[in-house]
Amino acid sequence: MHEVPPAINSKKKPKQKQGKDAAVQGTNDSSVVSKVSAANQGYFQDDLLQHFVCKVSRRAPLINRGYYIRWQAVDHCVKRFLRATESCARRQILSLGAGFDSLYFRLHAEDALRQVVVFEVDFPDVARRKATLINGNDRLKDALLEWDLSAHNGPVYVHSAQYNLLGVDVRNEREAEEVLSMAGLQWDHPTLVLSEVVLTYMETEWSDAVIGWAARILRQAFFVMYEQIRPDDPFGRVMQNHFLKLNSKIHALCQYPDTSAQTQRFLQKGWEKCVCLDMNQFYFNLLSQDERERVEKMEPFDEFEEWHQKCSHYFILTASKGCLTSPALLILPNGVPSLPYFKIFALQ
User: Fold this and answer.
1) For residue 213, which of 242, 156, 170 has the smallest C-alpha distance?
2) Tell me, what DSSP letter sits at residue 269?
3) Which residue among 22, 122, 190, 217 has the highest number of C-beta atoms inside a 10 angstrom radius?
4) What percent of the chain lies above the pLDDT cut of 90?
């Protein structure tokens, strides 16, 4: 990763950058409301998310399904990481652009954080708002062990034995390393880096730099990423226009348009192994038939073409290095072919 380039020191570009950063921060608010909607409809269990929204709104079934498969894919990878490293004296989760995600609090409620320390990183304004929400909620506060109440002015906004909330721009390598070290991240311990629709909002040179930086500085690690692909078909163009209207352009899919390109991206940036699946592959191959049937009965639904088109335009990726290259987080069952979305409708 590099320092922010000098070119942004002009009079206009800092304001443009601040505007774009603010728009990206706004995607957090929309995302958490959508996750709460899916949870409230029973797609997945997470009753802690509601503490991070001011008003609960019910989303359309297509949106609920989209956030369901996203939640399932990330949860699948996190749980496999925890199982693969359960014999380690210390494990770490580093969540980039965590927003108002409830991952730490949910895992704590599930008693799944033995010897695990979670570090969440986001823009200072987002981290400050989240810290305020945590501080004002007894259930969230009760999940924090050995909470250092003096840490509230940033860049470390919450500092406790197993949860740390940091306000720092990861595009600045030097500052990110200093703040993470200050919060107690150990660079040589098994670490899961999580990026859930985060890096794509950066210019591609910066997201590439973050991926390469994590590979260089972490000795044994997994990287889990959920993002968009396939920009050039009609659905992909509509998808890109949607984010443009929000002033939150998605960048990486233009240079890395499919799962193969994303895989090569990580291998070229220093990761030793990489597996990348689109969400149709994940849905049909890694979720059980019973689970799919449960979800398909959740709400009245007839938008199957749109659902599988959407799934074909998102992926879940895991990359690994060091001693963690052996346990794969994503494995397709032997003999099961991946299915492009246009061949799926016969299965409905």
Assistant:
1) 170
2) T
3) 122
4) 80
Backbone angles phi, psi at 66, to 5 degrees: -60, -45
Give the whole-angstrom CA distance, residue 15 versus residue 42: 42
Rounded CA separation 125/154 (Å): 10
Find out whether 315 and 236 touch, Cβ atoms under 8 Å.
Answer: no
209-231 residue pLDDT tens: 999 999 999 999 999 999 999 99
Closest by Cα among 124, 123, 117, 166 to 144? 117
Residues 252 and 200: their CA atoms lie apart, in Å, by: 5
Instruction: Specify the range with the lowest mean pLDDT, choosing from 108-117, 125-134, 332-341.
Output: 332-341
Separation in Å, CA 311 to CA 67, 73, 82, 192, 315: 11, 12, 26, 24, 8
CB atoms within 10 A of CB 118: 23
* Prediction pTM value: 0.90
For 122-143, b/e burial (b = at least 16 CB within 10 A) is bbeebbbbbbeebeeeeebeeb
What's the mean pLDDT when you consider all of the chain?
Answer: 89
